[in-house]
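We modelled the chain as a single entity of 438 amino acids. Its sequence is:
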Amino acid sequence: AFDAGHRILALRARNTSALGAYVSTDRNLLPSFANLGSLAGMYVIPAAHVHVTGVFSFTNSLAPYRGNGRPEAIYVLERLMDDAARELGVDRVELRRKNLIPPAAMPYKTAITFTYDCGEFERGMDKALALAKWSDFSSRRKFSKSNGKLRGIGLANAIERAAAPGMEYAEVRFEPTGTATLVVGTKSQGQGHETMYRQIAASRLGISPGEMRVIEGDTDAVAFGAGSFGSRSAAIGGTALWLAAGKVIAKGRRIAAQLLEAAEADVAFAAGRFTIAGTDRGVSVKEVARASFAFAALPKGIEPGLFEHATFSPAQETFPNGTHVCEVEVDPETGSVELVNYVVVDDVGTEINPLTLQGQVVGGIVQGLGQILMERIVYDPETGQLLTGSFMDYAMPRAGDLCNFEVGHNAVPTKLNPLGAKGAGEAGTVGALAAAMN
């Protein structure tokens, strides 16, 4: 519902969700209701009402998939924004712009569940439109028409919930040689956690990433770990590591004070060195680590060795967000759809490693494009036999189905953790369905 000035008044949604033949765990239900908060999107929606009906069906059980209900929620909302723009006779970008939540309104409590801590949504949308050359689309459409093709461009503003409250564990262990072992409770599934954790520790402790090894998710070596899901590893696991490194620095300062024959309050730490404030006298963290194992020479009350652990659970979830712009050509004779360009500008908070971040975002987009363009589970209606039982029958996107992806940046660090990280693992998928369909 919109008022006369084209501002949103309210949203009402009805969702009928096929749960499969049985429910074995609450995780089977998550995609049906975990998406509800995302239905508010980036917009000022004063009132909302959502009703979900779960239905048993003669199919496989429902389960979380990358985005866990948020891609579907954003699909509904962003399809509605395009529908509304057509019905009201207004520009679809300007309709969105008029209803975006402004930065000055943060923190912003939506009408459905969530409270956004920060975000600059209009800035991100404008960056994406510029990268996609949105204003020049009409000339590209004419070019396609001259070649017998139809050309379309679509956008979607996407927000998702990440790093929900839950504990994570990390430990920093210095060896007598001065090298370090990082022990974390998450588990990489190919995201490059080993690089990310080394970068966090290197930034905090000032030692080379090559002088660290990472033990991740090994129950034989890690005291506790919840694992990797919900885009939580950087924001929660990374913060636990940051806190553990802080404890190492605090203990190291006491040892350094003795080595430098100075008062502990006069010892500062930066760039991997403990120094006496106002002088150039100092010792490296590696030297302090080696000294920590000389137990006979340690000050009274300090345990030998330099290893500390920490846990972290955030006060609330974070809200990565972004604008997706997808451009396609359609063959009117066959209906074949060709992706010709895809732009996304994401706000995942602090970007620890831009290269692995790009891999996460693009991988997520491809999963979303697969869902909207070619992937489909098919059962025989008479027998219930699964007909798409392998990748010989199930159309999963491959490189030849895709186009160039341009990933832009609109980082607005969160204050919910000391790293400022919001999470990136699922962000790409959340906006891809609606952008491609629009």
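As a brief sanity check on the tokenised model: Residues 177 and 291 are 10 Å apart (CA to CA). The chain has a mean pLDDT of 95.
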